[in-house]
Amino acid sequence: MIRKWTCGNKYVDCCIKEFQLRTSKYENIIEWIPFDKLSITDKIGEGGFGCVYFATWSDGIRKIEKTDDYYYVRSREPSSAVALKTLSNSSLKEFKNHMKCMLVGSKLKIYGLTQNTETNEYMMVFQYANSGNLYKFLRSNFRGLNWKTKLKLLLDISEDLLRIHDTGYIHADFHSGNILQHKGLNENMKSYISDMGLSKKSNESDSEGCIYGVIPYVAPEVYQVKSLH
């Protein structure tokens, strides 16, 4: 666990430390990231529960490198591209949901938390997807995709959804706008499930009795159940 740090909020400190203690790999350790280490350049998304920004992290992402002597050393990737998402409330629910899923193999990398020094909003720092979401990606590239690529994207999404279900959670806002696309150095496209602010345990009831989500993707039975109350 990283020592000698604090964000000034005991609740947030405890939340970060909890997941630090549950992480076994150096490259998956999350941390409190001072806001002055992040340089925001663009707003890249906005939803009902927060805004997403593109930023450069000066300290950089943790990684394991192989040396010429065939040793493995801990290092960082300086000036890393990352995404920041404002968290809608102080409970850090979305951050916790993502972390619990990442611990069992969910692919979207979470790097830590920060706080906007101007607005005092807490923000989740996570992996930047350079090809946007699946909805926009398919609108621009569908005709050029072969079946191998389509099946690979479906496999990525299915595996990620399985990891979420393995934790006992349901996504509750699952649609193409919440599936991120990233093209790697080898030109392979990868898919990641994001936006778990509405996620909940499968046995957890909706105490507020409200319907959330994007209307075209809400299951018909949800409306039917609500209309009976």
From TrEMBL:
A GO term, aspect molecular function: ATP binding
Gene3D superfamilies, sorted: Transferase(Phosphotransferase) domain 1 (1.10.510.10)
Top-level division of the source organism's lineage: Eukaryota
Key words of the record: Kinase, Transferase
PROSITE patterns recorded: PROTEIN_KINASE_DOM
Ranges of residues in domain Protein kinase: 38-229
Entry's transmembrane regions: none
Protein name per its UniProtKB record: Kinase-like domain-containing protein
Organism: Gigaspora rosea
